[in-house]
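Troubleshooting log. The previous structure file for this entry was overwritten by mistake, so regenerating from the original sequence record. Sequence copied from the archived sheet and checked twice against the printout by T.R.
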Amino acid sequence: MKFTSHKFVRIIFTLIILISSQLACQTLTAPAATESVPTAQLDISASPTVSADLSDEEIKAGIQSSLDTYAQAYNENNPDLLEQVVDQENKPFRRIVRSRFDEYQISSQAGGGTFSYTLNSIDKRELEYVIAHFTTAGGYKADWPFRLLNDRWVITEPTVEQVGEPVITDTEHFTFTTYPWADDVNQQIMDMMEIARTNSEAVLGQAPTEKANVKIIPIYGLSPYNPMNAIALYN
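Regenerated output below.
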């Protein structure tokens, strides 16, 4: 059977969308079956934080409290609670989180389970961001960015300016567009793409001769009008 380049590309970029979902620490969606995370814009200078004066245990306690409130918002269908723990200064991010919340509450899954989150650890990032690593009631792992705003830890993401200028990397088979904010995982994803291409070629017997353009998008704010679950794009 002959496989076309189009079919191969479709397989490759299904894989990259799945792989890129591991960028949960840079992105937020509603708590569906696999608890991932999107992203957007805000102005850190307008809202100074004091997280540098807090101990790790104080930060953990504050983030766990916000996770508890977030879970309660879903369990009780209470958008007011949701707003308390989602960055309201980050308009694209606020919009996507509220949209996912509203969609869930009118879905057949609403009221069918109890959401809860257990914080495992934190990583402090630049610009006063903290990545929370936690486990959901269903046993899934997730990583969400938080920042301290008005004495409360809110779920958020970096701004378009803060993720850095796009970096173009050409390899033999791909042209990657990445952003410095995600440098801790960018190379891993690029390596996975090469492996995925090699594996697909071994199965299909051929591969496209043209390079594929791959964008690794770490925040929702970079593509605020794309489908909510699209973390990777093929052009």
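The two ends are 26 Å apart (CA to CA). Archived copy saved in two places this time.
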